[in-house]
């Protein structure tokens, strides 16, 4: 009897991301991923479960990458305003490839309420402690929402920014957060 192939989860998640970006959420199927990975559908299902479980694994991967970007900027347990500052820096510093990945992720997330709820929890966990009774808390909320809006516009190709315009936007949002605007 032959040995069962070992599935490299990170490689398969990378292939899933590639399919998601190339073919959209509908193109990311267990069958398409198995074919791309050169394994059986059962192997993918054994490693990840359902398509929703696969997307949840992608979300976990993206969240770990985000944390790896933000923690060096503000530490592992930043206060609410510092969390927004770290998020802003990570947003402004992302590459064009990261924005393309974000658009694919968002398209996949809106397919099911389960993933939308996970994302809501993520935002609440990182930014839910802002004290909106203070000017600093209100500026942080406004900065966060402005950064996310700009991020979405860029990720979905709704607005184009030159590198200088993007850096300038980041500087303006930094100034808003600091109360200098």
Automatic annotation (TrEMBL):
Q: Superkingdom, according to UniProt?
A: Bacteria
Any Pfam family hit: TetR_C_28
Entry-linked SUPFAM superfamilies: Homeodomain-like (SSF46689)
Q: Does the keyword Repeat apply?
A: no
Q: Which UniProt keywords apply?
A: DNA-binding, Transcription, Transcription regulation
Is Nucleotide-binding among this UniProt entry's keywords?
no
Q: Coiled-coil region(s) at which residues?
A: none
Q: What is this protein called?
A: TetR family transcriptional regulator
